[in-house]
Structures are given as C-alpha cells and as structure tokens.
Amino acid sequence: MNPAAAAPAPDARLGDLATIGFRPCRARGGYESDDMRLIVAAGWAVLEPKCSQVVSSPLHAHLGEPGLWRWLAERGLQRSRSVFEVPLASLRVGNAMRADDGGQNVFADVVAWARATRPGSVAPGRVAFGDWSPPPLETVRGWLPDDALTVRASGLARQGRLVHSRQRLAVEFPVAPCPDGLDAGRRAWLGRVLTDAQSRWRLARVGLVDGGIRAEIDLTGAPPPVLEALLPIAVDALRWVVAWVLEPVQFLVDVTHACADATLQPGWA
Amino acid sequence: MTALDTTAAGPGAQDAFRFIATDVTGTNELEVGDLQSSLPASAVARTVADRMSLPDNVPWALRDESTSVYLDDDVAIGDQIVPDARVAITPRTHLG
C-alpha cells in the first residue's frame, strides 16, 4: 500500500494530494512532490520550489510576471525564498463549481498554475498559457467593490489600476516615484521598508519597476473556478500593503525632507 | 547584496496632477502636486481635508472655483478640472 495515498489531506479543500503527486514529508513537515513543497497552515496553502533560485535583485524579483510567486526575505537579507500562496477560502467556491461538473479538485489546477509560472519558467511579458484569457472586464469589475482600487493613508492617496487584456489579469498600484539621486542611506531604508512589506503580507509584491515603486498582484493564468473568490482576497491584501508602505515610502523618496537618521544604514533584526 | 538598486530607474511612476485647494473661509490654501489625476474626486477631497487638518467626521466635497460646479465624487479629478485649477473644499450639506 502506498503510504502517501493513505495520508489524509490537511484540509478537505485541497482534495487528495496523492493524486497530484504530493506525499507527506516527515523531515520538513508538510508535503512534497518531485519539484515543490507544500505547507498548509492558518488557512493558506504555501507552495515553494524544492530547488531555490538565487535572487540577485530581490526588489525587482517577480514584478510583472504572471502568477502569485513572491520573494520573501528571512533573517534580513541573509536568506530568501520564493513562495506561491493561495488562500484556502478561494478553493471552496471553485470546488463547489467543480462538484457540479463532476471534475477534479481545483487545487490540482492551482498547482499546475504555480508550475507554469514558476520563477525562471516565464519571461516577463511573455504569453505562457495557451488559450487562457481572463473573464470579461465587466465580470471582473463586478467582483470588486466600487472603491477597491483607491487607497488613502495619512494624507496620501493612490489609485490602482486593473490590468485586463487578452492574456493578462493584474492589479497595480503606483506607490511612489523613485528619484535617481536618492542617497545610499535612504535607498537602504527604502529597501528595508519594501522588503518588510512584501514579507509581512501574503499575495502582494512590492518593488521597483520603471523608475517607481509599485505594488501588484498578478492573477494571469489563474484557474477560472478560483478567480471570483481569489481576486477580492488578493486586492484586499494589496490594499493593506499599499496603505502600510505609503507614508514611510513617501517620506523616504521626498528628498526635500531632511532627516539625519535616513543617512544611517538600517540594521536587520 | 544591495538592498535597493535604483540604477534601472527611469521616468516617474505616477501621473501627478497639480491644483490649489482652499477651504471655504479662505484661511487655508494648499498646493497639491502629488496626487494622480485618476483618483476619484471623493478620495482627493478626503485627502485634502486630512492635509488641512479638517475634521474627519464631515463629508467633504470639492468645488471648481472657476465654474462653481461641485465635482462628481465618483469621477476622476483629472476628468473634471484642468491642471493648476483652484478648488474649494466644502462640507457636503443636504438642504431639506
């Protein structure tokens, strides 16, 4: 008897993990397949590659790429890893739809999505999903509250944008422009703030792109049954991150504000 | 590893929009130059009220001083006023 097949799934919403190649991993806890590890905890399924990639420029990593992969810093910048996190709540609706059709558990599709968008497998801006396309724009808009793309915090405000094209679905918030002449101290603090922001909250990426600081979620390639539940959760996560970073980032990039402490290099806890 | 590499930085990421806001008494005048033109007028009004330290338990609206027209809360401010316009921030009142 295959012991993996007999192992119960950690959450019914994930279905039978053995059928999609995951077996319990006693040494590390959680589950693993040939190429990925899976940890299930606190309402989230967290996938990560078994072979980590070295991220040379973490604050540019994954931005603009399809899927939910994010870079996380641990122990300062001494260690990093990429993760693909899915709220289990988003699987419930998808599984209910699938049950009506008699299809397989939707988590299998989520794992396939994670594999298709794994770091290094997709070049930014490249089409990777064959005939995948997002639902119609009006349908997607209907899944979000009217003011979902507006964030206010501490006398600051930002308007996000829904990116909806034939083969892309994402939400992006411009956080702040990043001046070329920022001194080393402020750059280091900015890196610390953005790294903290990305590591504290799930789903959203924050980093530097096109001369500015951007926060984003990218649901390109997401299995259709999970999209309706996943999009509002992801946008909520994004709004939290934007609200959290807005004031410190604005302070750091505004060079008209003198700050002696900003010239000091931040330490890593 | 560098915590932050800005060498790839190009043009700014925001479509900043400049306008001047005054309160109804004319006591406060504020030049705003960092908000996006795509922000709805309601979010801009609340942000301006924050910066002027106006009460946060009051619904605020913006009025274009050149036309005296109240801006539509749900429409992007850039679609309702021109750059460098002057607007007044006023409490939203309902006259019965």
Can you walk through the features of this model?
The complex is a heterodimer of chains A (269) and B (96). Chain A is an alpha+beta fold and 269 residues long. Chain A has 6 helices and 12 strands. Chain A has helices spanning 3-6, 89-101, 106-116, 137-142, 184-200, 224-253; strands spanning 23-24, 31-32, 36-41, 44-49, 69-74, 79-87, 150-153, 156-159, 161-165, 168-177, 205-209, 212-218. In chain A, the strands form 3 sheets. Chain A has a 6-stranded antiparallel beta sheet with strand order 1-2-3-4-6-5, sandwiched between helices. A 4-stranded antiparallel beta sheet of chain A has the order 9-10-12-11. In chain A, strand 1 and strand 2 (31-32) form a beta hairpin. The longest helix of chain A has 30 residues, at 224-253. The radius of gyration of chain A is 19 Å and the shape is globular. In chain B, a hairpin with a 5-residue loop joins strand 1 (16-23) and strand 2 (29-36). Chain B is mainly beta and 96 residues long. A 5-stranded mixed beta sheet of chain B has the order 2-1-5-3-4, covered by helices on one side. Chain B has 1 helix and 5 strands; from the N terminus they run E-E-H-E-E-E.
What is the secondary structure topology, with strand pairs?
The complex is a heterodimer of chains A (269) and B (96).
Chain A: H1 3-6, E1 23-24, E2 31-32, E3 36-41, E4 44-49, E5 69-74, E6 79-87, H2 89-101, H3 106-116, H4 137-142, E7 150-153, E8 156-159, E9 161-165, E10 168-177, H5 184-200, E11 205-209, E12 212-218, H6 224-253
Antiparallel strand pairs in A: 1-2, 2-3, 3-4, 4-6, 5-6, 7-8, 9-10, 10-12, 11-12
Chain B: E1 16-23, E2 29-36, H1 41-51, E3 60-64, E4 69-70, E5 86-91
Parallel strand pairs in B: 1-5
Antiparallel strand pairs in B: 1-2, 3-4, 3-5
Summarize it:
The complex is a heterodimer of chains A (269) and B (96). With 269 residues, chain A is of the alpha+beta class.
Rounded mean pLDDT of chain A is 84
Shape of chain A: globular
Query: What profile does the largest beta sheet of chain B have?
Result: 5 strands, mixed
The class by helix and strand makeup of chain A works out as: alpha+beta
Q: What is the N-to-C order of secondary-structure elements of chain B (H for helix, E for strand)?
A: EEHEEE
**Which two chains share the most extensive interface?**
A-B, 41 and 27 residues
Could you list the spans of chain B in which at least 5 consecutive residues all have pLDDT below 50?
Answer: 1-13
Helical stretch tally of chain B: 1
